[in-house]
Amino acid sequence: MDPTEEQQPPAAPAPAPPPAPASTLPDAPDRETMEAIRRRRLEKLGGGPGSAAGSGANSPSATSPTSGSPTGGTPVPEKASPIVPISNRPQINITPSPSSATTPKDKAVNSILGEELGSKRRASELEGSPSGVPAPPRKQTPAQESFEDYADRILGSIFRMSVDATRTKDAHGHKLTFLPNLSQDLTDEVAPLKLSQDRLEEAIMEAATEYPKEKPLFEYLLACWKRVVRTLKALRNPSPQKEALLKEARRLCFSNCIFSLTMPELFSRDASPVHDTLVPYLLKEVENENGLCMDFIGEAVSRFDEDDTIAPLFTKAMVDISSKLSTMTMNDDYKPYVNALKTYSRYAPLLNELAAHPCFQMAQSAPGIEKNTLLGPFFRISPLQPEVAAVYFAGPRTMDPRHIATSQSALQMTLNTHQADLRDIINAFIRASNQTRNKVLDWFAYIMNANHKRRAMQHDPREVSSDGFMINVTVILDYLCEPFMDSTFSKVSRIDINYFRRNPRIDIKDETKLNADQAQSDKFYSTKLDGDNNFITEVFFLTLAAHHYGSEATNAKLKTLDREIKHFEKNIALMEAERPKVINRPFELRRLDDALKRYTAILEASMSLRMCISGVSLEQKMQARSLLFMRYVTVWLLRVASGTEYTPEKQLQLPLPADQPEAFRCLPEYALQDIVDNFKFVFREVPQVIVNAVGDELIALCITFLESSEYVKNPYLKSSLITLLYQGTWPRYHLSKGFLGELMTSTKFANQYLLHAVMKFYIECELTENGFYDKFNIRYEIFQIIKCVWVNDHYRQQLVQASKSNRSFFVRFVNLLMNDATYVLDEGLGKFPKIHQFQLDLKNPNLSQQDREKLEEELREAENRATSFMQLANETVGMMRLFTRTLSEAFTMPEIVQRLAGMLDYNLDMLTGPKSKNLKVDNPEKYHFSPKTLLPEIADIYLNLGSSPAFVEAVAGDGRSYRDSTMRMTAQILRGKHLKDEHEVQAWERLCEKFRKAKEILEQADMDFDKFPLEFEDPIMGILMSDPVSLPSKHVVDRSTIVQHLLSDPKDPYTRKPMTIEDVVPVVELRERIEAWKEWRRAEAKRMKEEALVGVAEGKGGDEMDTTE
After folding, report:
1. Which of 39, 252, 521, 851 is 20 to 30 A distant from 635 in Cα terms?
2. Which portions of the chain have biased composition (kind: Basic and acidic residues) (predicted)?
């Protein structure tokens, strides 16, 4: 293609008539106005007003050519208007058109050329520029072509114009527009009718002035610019004259392009917001014939310093593009808008100008940020926009899983492409200059500070930024963190803990702190430090906040949507069931149908949004980047808390120092919450990305803050660490113990601290603000963690050591374990009689619909509770079975053995005694109730402890639940149902015999001490005291009673003030009197027995002492 073949001014279909008489032509602008315009224009071009040859004219009615004064620029009077020789003309010149008052010589020339001029076209007949591009100069230029001929030919092809009426087309057949005014000037000057470098400014001015007003002038000039640039590029070893000619043509063309947008009055045009803008050209691809090419933008940027109108022109265009984009969604053709900003991102000066614009960061509300700031609309584009979600997931109630997955995959690809564009744009801003970088960081910080309400329990979506906008912000900040997040954590030391004391961008004043109240944190942060925060620190804390207010808030929304969907589905079902009842009542039917329609629309919108959020949140690459960032936060947080240079290759020492670092205590709570929530979400929803994204640091984090739990104030946050470890044990793919199970089983750090840490929190959750039922869920998860690692003998040995070295700690743990077993078994088994009765009642065919619905509701409630408690019961009994097998001695300590025996006896009686008939329900597996599993495990606990005399005595002494008949029935069931092998059944029978004999001995002892003085009675348990102690409240109880009480509640039972076992004082005098009374009773019982035996021997027929029950 010809390098000059691009676009030409329109040409008339037939030659134009000769110039009309002066009286019929339009009036030219007055001389004063044109002189002012000329001076402004020449100043833009680099010259002064005195450099022009004369004032310009816009129509044939203008005065005859005049020359400006060489110094003052004052026009020469019309009567003395000598023609300035071409060689003396300035390089940039605006030549006036011929005057209406022509001289005799002019008339003669017109008479000679009249017929020729009559065949020429007028400049006002310019057509739209064709799409052709002029060809480069031929490699073999005819030898006879002079430079003047070359200039005329090449300029005519570039600008599609001619001053020769006989030349209507260029060498490539493109129509050329005749310039009558310049042609007249040349004729008047008796100069060749050729375009030249000296008169090029006048030629461009004439062609541009007469270009149709309904068309953008910039369109014509831009096409000329592209042709001249391509012609320059096509030159091969040009002569200096030709190169200078084309460069001057390029310079003048570009200047007039800018003038056409910034000074339209120069071309006798009114200002037009439609025409005087770069927006339409920026929205086209740079390769498009009508698009703004890179050469043009590069030229514009290079002239920023010399022309102060260019930068505002480009800045305003991008502001307008941003404003238009703010009304669009991903359903619309948004890509050209993003590409326009990507084009800007190649030029740092453009980005610097954008960042300096007032709308880059205006004071806005949270939702206003994404619409009214310059970058906001670009980040707003997302599949999470409601209109987009409705398109991707139309008819969500009937979509099958495969269709949903396909739609989610499609939106992920679209969003990935858009986010990659945003990443490139922000990276360019960051690298443009320090000032621009700071502006971008300020903008991100403004987003975070304006969106604190996104983490409120309830908030109005109209008062915060949208989910799609915040997700995009989070992803881009994750991208910014990638360069410093290497696998060796070599740059983690660059993250400065003193960020919040050094003029931070992020506002955390109202955020809950890890372990400090408001007054403490305010005092700490009131002391400011000198210096600036480095870029890594800035981006780290911005990204941390973005996860909190952005992605994690969006993920949390899934639960809310699930509840809403369930609610609307329930109500729609009720309305549909009600519809047949009002089918004959038109008014009520219409109201019902309207309500049904509204509910259905809301339901489908919620379902579409839920599917859309899942699709966005489950994108694997996004989650992989997020996890990488969270690993860095984990390592950094452990370094701050421990005051060490911790990395996963180094070992932490626990517990952490008692003196907590103040900087750690005053950190926002979300520094830890984000880690936990992010990993929990990935474990549950996107497990495939976790395989290569988890290391020892996650286990170290959980164990550290469970062992040193005083470092974290929020009990729910601490319990989330247990949940995180538990979810890490879920079997995934080829990992039978999950992603964390093997690490917890085998790593040195876990072997040393894990068991004690989880047992410690098992105790702690009893005394914290966790809900009553939440503690059972936490303990259930703890059981699963212990079961996962129990295969390692090291943990068993550690448990034995703990029972010996830290007796009080272990006793408290076992006591709570028994409390849980007692409660959950009682609650779980206690629901089955009710469930059984409900099931029988519902089989009654005579039940009314209302009664049936009420029973069904009560049945569902009972079933839910039974299911939950039986799950907990199974795990609790299973854990006791494991522990008693390993260290039976620890479970038979005096403090706990009696309660343990009572719990076991009670539940054994429920399973095999007379009450077992009440446990029959339909489909017991539905409630996780399996007597064939539960009974053998309870029997195992008996057998594990059966060698202990203390345990045997405790079982036999349980007057509430122990029965020999229950023990024999248990043996019969174990043998008859093959729940135990014969060897174990025989061991059970031998143990039962021990219980029976011990019972006989205890009954005899009870008879000896059955009537004791009231002062010897324990006021709480009602038993004979053996070791009376005085409490801080001065009440006297038996030591065993207060020990068991303090295991569950470390407070004085009378005053509720905190106390420990060390606070009790033995009442020695009372204990001695009790022992003396016991000796007296034993002696009295012995004397009476001997007298009875003597009476029998002497035949006195005395009654035998009855020693049976």
Report:
1. 521
2. 28-37
